[in-house]
Design a protein that fits this description.
The complex is a heterotrimer of chains A (103), B (502) and C (118). With 103 residues, chain A is mainly alpha-helical. In chain A, 78% of the residues lie in helices and 0% in strands. In chain B, helix 9 runs antiparallel to helix 11. Chain B is built from 21 helices and 2 strands. Chain B has a two-stranded antiparallel ribbon with strand order 1-2. In chain B, strand 1 and strand 2 form a beta hairpin. Chain C is an all-alpha fold. Chain C has a single domain, classed as NADH:ubiquinone/plastoquinone oxidoreductase, chain 3 (Methane Monooxygenase Hydroxylase, Chain G, domain 1), CATH 1.20.58.1610. Chain C contains 3 helices and no strands. The termini of chain C are far apart. Classes of the chains: A mainly alpha (103), B mainly alpha (502), C mainly alpha (118). The interface between B and C is small, with 10 and 11 residues. Chain A: It is found in: Cell membrane; Membrane. Chain A: NDH-1 is composed of 14 different subunits. Subunits NuoA, H, J, K, L, M, N constitute the membrane sector of the complex. Chain A: It is a multi-pass membrane protein.
Chain lengths: 103, 502, 118
């Protein structure tokens, strides 16, 4: 089976994973889980990039996926540091309780 | 073989032109130097780090001016990944001037809050580097990397007050929503790449032109998702919900910085990608509807919500959303006049908004920011110059002559009317009329004599550098409003110089 | 196209059927003698001291975060390695600059004491 025959399914899989991630961001309350959902979205995009790269026979898709992986890691590092800091200043880990800035 | 004999081997292959990225390289170098200097600087000496960072920004500004003359014929460098043109350099100049002004008011504010850490300066330079890369980005990949570079630095800066829960909350909200928006941005990029086969903007434009009369639905979905990602960065409604919270919770000097520079840089990318890469009539007719709606929504939501605020930082946050809506008019309308109108608008917005936030930063005392309406009452009787400067910034944001804001609005609305988009201009004029209420309300409060029994607020004394920033921004607002052609000529030249074909 | 996946579907069905069948046979024919020792998470000896859902030292997070960032950055060596011959000396110098930037990050982390385990 060739890569191009698989292609629509790969795109559908990526769209599905992306939707799961987006939905998770909207309905989950734990910032760490929300963060994991964002990671899921980014990795769904990676699938799109790599499969398009394979489909079009161009390297740009793979290179883009590399960039996304590295940036996602950097974002995770900053995110985890912030989450631990929020925890330290004495807040519960529930983003619905982060409401001091609403008027 | 002599040492010099080795040098030709080190020469970069053709297509890589390091001079095209000189301002960014200088700033990135400053970022690394500051990080190392921070390790060896005693806490009491950290004011010098501000000096070093201002020197780095000045160096990058000098390089930008040099590049301006060098880039008379626009071209792309780094194999098309980066556009070396006057459009990007104009935006660079706005970003660098704003950064320098923010750095000048920073040390005093950080000292008062007990937050004077050296990383602050490094992160500001890192964010500014990302913004400049975004302004010149010629490929989807560079747009993504630049946005993330500036965003990650700003996430940390928003939460810079590590013991203040509101600062942490702001950073967390910004991070989670920013990551969410990045997902949409990337999905859009992936679809655009897949449907056109390229990540370089010039090649994408060529692929769309060669595509003939058909519009691929996946390409349109990609363009829409890319717009959502960028709309988040310019905080356009309905993707604006993070803005007031983050502006209020972040340290005020950081708010000053990001409220202006992020918007300027993201608008540069928006204009480059949408007005110039996706300008093909068939595509334009589709995405125009989305941008049209978002522009009107931003103007209405920003101005109406600002009416109900009682904190000056939040008012300026909502006012920034509305200003974004006005600049979006310049993106919807494809004429050259709309583009240089937007560039002029960005410059005038930068000056007035930095000034307004700088007033809050400069006046903040040890414990709090004094940005509530109650604390502004009677400011003019105790700090006449500061209140006068604030009044000038508010007049400019509201679009009154003889300030820069008047001509900015005039150019953008005139461009809309010139392109037969009268409804858009009418929405702009109507919502500007609404905005007068809250800008004037703040102005009137400052000139209302306080009741004798009211608590007296402990405004800080204005330092030399703080007063200098206020004087410079006030002068800039007036000069741009009276000698309009000074900046206008540069903006028109920037619009003319945009790279169209690799 | 979809029929290419048929063996996987059959395989899945066989797996589920086998697992369910063995479970069912065991519950029908096997003897049942419950005891406290059998309900332990680790049946074979180690008695759990406390709940596994306790707080961990924040040092674990710091170390993990630093590991992630330096680990993932090395991914750029892979595409670079495929074309380093064409880039000649310039490519080596470029990667040197990249590694130097990472090294500066490491020096910073070290000097800030983030690698100390207290």
């Amino acid at each position: 089976m060739t890569a191009s025959a698989n292609f629509p399914y790969l795109l559908a899989l990526a769209a599905f994973l992306f939707s799961v991630g987006a939905l998770g961001v909207l309905i989950r309350r734990n910032p760490i889980v929300v963060f994991m959902c964002i990671e899921l979205m980014l990795n769904a995009v990676n699938i799109v990039f790599v499969s398009y790269g394979r489909f079009l026979n161009s390297e740009e898709g793979q290179v883009f996926a590399f960039m996304v992986i590295v940036v996602a890691a950097a974002e995770v590092v900053v995110g985890l540091a912030l989450i631990t800091q929020v925890f330290r200043v004495g807040r519960e880990l529930d983003i619905d309780d982060l409401d001091e800035l609403n008027e | 073989m002599t040492v010099l004999g080795v040098l030709p081997v080190l020469a970069p292959p053709p297509g890589i032109d390091i001079l095209g990225l000189l301002p960014e390289v200088i700033l990135a170098g400053g970022f690394i130097v500051l990080m190392m200097l921070d390790l060896v600087t005693a806490p009491a000496q950290r004011g010098w780090l501000a000096v070093v960072s201002v020197v780095a920004v000045a160096g990058a500004f000098g390089a930008t001016v040099w590049c301006w003359f060098d880039a008379a014929t626009p071209r792309t460098v780094y194999f098309g990944a980066f556009a070396y043109d006057r459009f990007g350099l104009f935006i660079n100049a706005i970003i660098l001037v704003s950064t320098a002004l923010v750095l000048m008011i920073t040390p005093q504010y950080l000292n008062r809050r007990g937050l004077h850490y050296g990383e602050y300066y490094a992160l500001i330079l890192g964010a500014a580097t990302g913004m400049m890369l975004l302004a010149g980005a010629g490929s989807l990949m560079v747009i993504f990397l630049a946005i993330e570079l500036l965003s990650i630095a700003l996430y940390i800066l928003s939460g810079f007050n590590r013991t203040e829960p509101r600062s942490q909350e702001a950073a967390m909200k910004y991070l989670l929503l920013g990551g969410f928006a990045s997902g949409f941005l990337l999905f859009g990029m992936a679809l655009i790449y897949g449907e056109t086969g390229h990540t370089q903007l010039t090649l994408i434009a060529a692929a769309i032109t060669n595509g003939g009369g058909t519009v691929d639905p996946l390409l349109m979905a990609g363009i829409a998702l890319l717009f959502v990602g960028l709309a988040f960065k310019i905080s356009a409604a309905p993707f604006h919900t993070w803005t007031p919270d983050v502006y209020q919770g972040a340290p005020t000097s950081v708010t000053t910085f990001m409220s202006v520079t992020t918007k300027v840089a993201a608008f540069a990318a928006l204009i480059r990608v949408f007005s110039y890469t996706f300008g093909e009539p068939l595509i334009y007719d589709r995405w125009k509807i989305i941008v049209y709606f978002v522009a009107i929504a931003s103007m209405v939501v920003g101005n109406v919500a600002a009416l109900r605020q009682t904190s000056l930082k939040r008012v300026l946050g909502y006012s920034g959303i509305a200003q974004g809506g006005y600049i979006l008019i310049g993106v919807v309308v494809l004429t050259p006049a709309a583009t240089w109108g937007s560039l002029y608008y960005l410059a005038s917005y930068a000056v007035a908004n930095i000034g307004a936030f700088a007033v809050i930063t400069v006046m903040a005392n040890r414990g709090e920011d004094l940005d509530s309406y109650a604390s502004l009452r009677g400011l003019a009787f105790r700090r006449p110059y500061v209140a006068a400067a604030m009044g000038l910034f508010l007049l400019s944001l509201g679009g009154f002559p003889p300030t820069a804001g008047f001509f900015a609005k005039f150019f953008v609305f005139a461009a809309a009317i010139g392109a037969h988009e009268l409804p858009l201009a009418l929405w702009g004029i109507g919502t500007s009329a609404v905005s007068v209420f809250y800008y004037l309300r703040v102005g009137l409060l400052m000139y209302t004599r306080p009741q004798p029994d009211e608590p007296s607020y402990n405004w800080s004394r204005t330092s030399l550098s703080g007063g200098g920033v206020l004087a410079l921004t006030a002068a800039g607002t007036l000069v741009m409003g009276i000698f309009v052609t000074l900046v206008l000529n540069i903006a028109v030249s920037a619009q003319n110089g945009i790279v169209l074909h690799g | 196209m979809l029929s290419d996946f048929a063996p996987i579907l059959v395989f899945l069905a066989v797996c589920v059927a086998f697992g369910a069948g063995v479970q069912a046979l065991a519950s029908w024919f096997g003897p049942r003698r419950p005891s406290a020792a059998k309900d332990l998470p680790y049946e074979c000896g180690i008695v759990p001291v406390e709940s596994a859902r306790r707080r961990f030292s924040v040092s674990f997070y710091v170390t993990a975060m630093l590991f992630i960032i330096f680990d993932v950055e090395s991914i750029f060596l892979l595409p670079w390695a495929t074309i380093v011959r064409q880039l000649k000396v310039f490519g080596v110098v470029e990667m040197g600059v990249f590694i130097a930037a990472l090294l500066i990050g490491l020096i910073y982390v070290w000097a800030k004491g983030a690698l100390r385990w207290d």
